[in-house]
Amino acid sequence: MGADSAESLMESAPVVAVDANGADLGPAEVAAAANAAAEQGVRVLLFGPAAQLPPLAPGVRLVDAPESVAKSADPVRAVREHPNASIVAAARAVAGGQAQALVCAGGTGAALAAGLFNIKRARGIHRPALALPLPIPGCPAPVTLLDVGANAHARPEHLVQFAFMGAAFAQAVLGIEQPRVGLLSNGEEAERGGDIVVAAHAQLTAMLAERSDGPAPLRFVGNVEGTDVTDGAADVVVTDGLTGNVSLKLIEGVSSTVLSAIRDAAMQSARARVGGLLLRRSLRAFRASIDPESQGGAYLLGLRGLAVVPHGRFASPGFTAAILRARRGVDTDVVGRTHAALAAAGALRASPVRASR
Amino acid sequence: MGADSAESLMESAPVVAVDANGADLGPAEVAAAANAAAEQGVRVLLFGPAAQLPPLAPGVRLVDAPESVAKSADPVRAVREHPNASIVAAARAVAGGQAQALVCAGGTGAALAAGLFNIKRARGIHRPALALPLPIPGCPAPVTLLDVGANAHARPEHLVQFAFMGAAFAQAVLGIEQPRVGLLSNGEEAERGGDIVVAAHAQLTAMLAERSDGPAPLRFVGNVEGTDVTDGAADVVVTDGLTGNVSLKLIEGVSSTVLSAIRDAAMQSARARVGGLLLRRSLRAFRASIDPESQGGAYLLGLRGLAVVPHGRFASPGFTAAILRARRGVDTDVVGRTHAALAAAGALRASPVRASR
Asked: Cβ B257–A195 below 8 Å, yes or no?
């Protein structure tokens, strides 16, 4: 840590534990991100191979953890069998209170396993979910999609919890007072979407109808279709991890394909080429506004501490954004507020003791 | 029918049964489409409300069927209880041999029910699937996505049949010799995607490995992610109807949102405005190339006859494209070739008699 006058202030600031292994571009890329985040006042506890890292900024403390499970084919087993792996050590730091949030790339499976085994599932939560606020052109606030890949399948009660978790998240982080929540389906009617979506629709409707105290924490807009996601029909879109992950990657893929096609169209004639040149600056700004890397990654919700999961292919700015996102999540108490909202909504799973009464 | 010299030729041409009820814009819109298709040599048997229809071209024969189940909340029941509804009568015409293919909009549920109850499921087929060839900018051939919404859920054996059905379709209609088939998943590894996708992956791999006679009808490229759909990683992408329908509508929604955002970007400055004007012609061509309406709708595969399902919001050119698509499907014997491919691959369900041996 630097010995400057801000040190006493810094000591009370939250610490973000960062796994340096897991970036496709290597640990030095993550270290550079940690340095950049520290310059913006974030305290970072960096877990990675000391021998491969550049000099670190004041505000970044290194824990030498050369072992990586990022490329493992069986991440759950790898996390279990390698207690000294950097991602496991970083998660342990959050569990032990040395850090208040975790940032780790290198696979959702490893992040989920390290989080579940060390930070632990929050009380009453069926399953954690990965939530991603997606910037949508023309929408004033991002649309939060969850689950984008923590678990492929979901049962109805999982989707119901995701609805309340996503709404609490959108309120805490995005400042949306009473988020509109939709269930992603293949039709808007309540009977569409198959058994699981239909049951979740019914449960959510019943829970909201039973409420008597105060304003509802969310407004359930029913089923939403794929086109509704970009139409801004809901602030929070709930689905299972398979459909959510496919959706997320389609949004990225289609955006990028359309932009490339427009670039190609702007090469087809002299006239179009001039047009493309004149439009270039506006298009660059648009491209940046929807760039997933500038967002920093998805929030893993439902643990006792916060985790942010950037994409392994991100370069250092993407990891910096992830660390800042984690810091902001701690500042806004995403974990506490999400849990309180679930409790207030009666959406927590009854504990074994209560269930046996 | 017109009494011109082409009449004898016309008599041997396939007939397409078209339900005129089901277009959001009304039956006259579908009648106009039938007229346009007839001008291109297709014989149409049109089922709809005679009182509401404009004069019909030679080549279009009208069956007065004013009753519609297009707006029914329970399409399966509506189809069952209204044998004179236009969609049911049109499906019966295919079953009875008066027509060789069906075109009907107004809801997947009604199309599926009318098809199953009248045209009937083909022998050995677990379930029909809706297949849609999607034009992808930069790809030489469309990517066929199935199921885009016939059934929300799918079991592993359904996905395996969809793989062979989709491949046979891509070969027959799109001329792709040995289509590359992928399973849509939340990761490329064989263990990703949840129980159902994992089991389908294993079954498909085993079936292809067991083959000894001749070249395989498809090349299984394993799991594909959302980004792979627009990257052209597979010619056929297989998934259940929930994820497939969401994917299809996300592709439409995101394409349209990005194009709108670019139009907005082209209004931000005088410089950008000039650029937008110069690019307009190229962008219009691009927009047309990915317009779902120009494609004509999805193919309902797995029945004893072909059905094409356009979107209810299509205007007359979209319905014309659907009728031409149905005619082409008859000409290329999509139904026969798909079934033969499934039989050759050993992917047909054993009949009760065979199963009891």
From this structure: no
Q: Cβ A261–B138 below 8 Å, yes or no? A: yes
H or E stretch including B227? helix B226-231
CA dist A27 and A13 (Å) reads: 25
Q: Partners of B182 in the beta sheet?
A: B222, B237
Structure confidence by residue, pLDDT tens digits, B18-36: 999 999 999 999 999 999 9
Q: Which has the closest alpha carbon to A23: A288, A322, A310? A: A310
Secondary structure (3-state) at B167: helix
Average pLDDT rounded to a whole number, residues B283-304? 87
Please give the average per-residue pLDDT across A318-330, as a whole number: 96
Residue B245: per-residue pLDDT: 96
CB of B271 within 8 Å of a chain A CB? The answer is yes
| 8-state DSSP, B115 | I
To the nearest whole number, what is the mean pLDDT of chain A?
A: 90
Provide the residue count of chain B: 357
Inter-chain contact A275–B274, Cβ cutoff 8 Å? yes
Which of B246, B247, B268, B280 is the best residue to mutate to test the A interface, defined by the most A CB atoms within 10 Å of its own CB? Answer: B246
Query: Do A264 and B153 count as a contact with CB atoms less than 8 A apart?
Result: no
pLDDT of B281 higher than 90: no
Residue given tokens 């979407």 in the structure block: A193
Question: CA-to-CA distance for A219 and A182, rounded, in angstroms?
Answer: 9
- When scoring B76, B147, B198, B227 by the number of chain A Cβ atoms within 10 A, the one with the most, hence best to mutate, is B227
pLDDT of residue B139: 84
List the one residue out of B21, B149, B68, B22 whose CA is nearest residue A192.
B149
Query: Which of B73, B254, B278 is opposite residue A189, by nearest beta carbon?
Result: B73
What is the rounded distance in angstroms from the CA atom of residue A116 to the CA atom of residue A210?
Answer: 32
Radius of gyration of chain B (CA): 21
In whole angstroms, what is the distance from residue A208 CA to residue A222 CA? Answer: 12
Q: How far apart are CA A10 and CA A59, in angstroms?
A: 8
Reported as a single tens digit per residue, the pLDDT across B47-106 is 999 999 999 999 999 999 999 998 788 889 999 999 999 999 999 999 999 999 999 997
Lowest mean pLDDT among A268-272, B164-168, B342-346: A268-272
pLDDT confidence of residue A147: 96
Q: Which residues on A lie below 8 Å from B245 (Cβ)?
A: 186-187, 225-226
A87 CB neighbour count, 10 Å cutoff: 33
By DSSP bridging, strand B129-134 and strand A43-48 are unpaired
- Report the residue of chain B nearest A278, measured CA to CA: B275
Q: Is B197 on the interface with A (CB under 8 A)?
A: yes
Chain B, nearest residue to A152 by Cα: B194
Distance of residue B129 Cα from the nearest chain A Cα, in angstroms? 14
The minimum CA-CA distance between A333 and chain B, rounded to whole Å, is 29
- The answer to whether B79 touches B65, Cβ cutoff 8 Å, is no
Gap from A117 CA to chain B (nearest CA, Å): 21
Amino acid symbol at A115:
G
Please give the share of chain A, as a percent, with pLDDT higher than 90: 72
Per-residue pLDDT at A1 exceeds 50: no
DSSP string covering A258-277, please?
Answer: HHHHHHHHTTSSHHHHHHHH
What span, in angstroms and rounded, lies between the C-alpha atoms of A93 and A100? 8
Mean pLDDT throughout B302-329?
Answer: 95
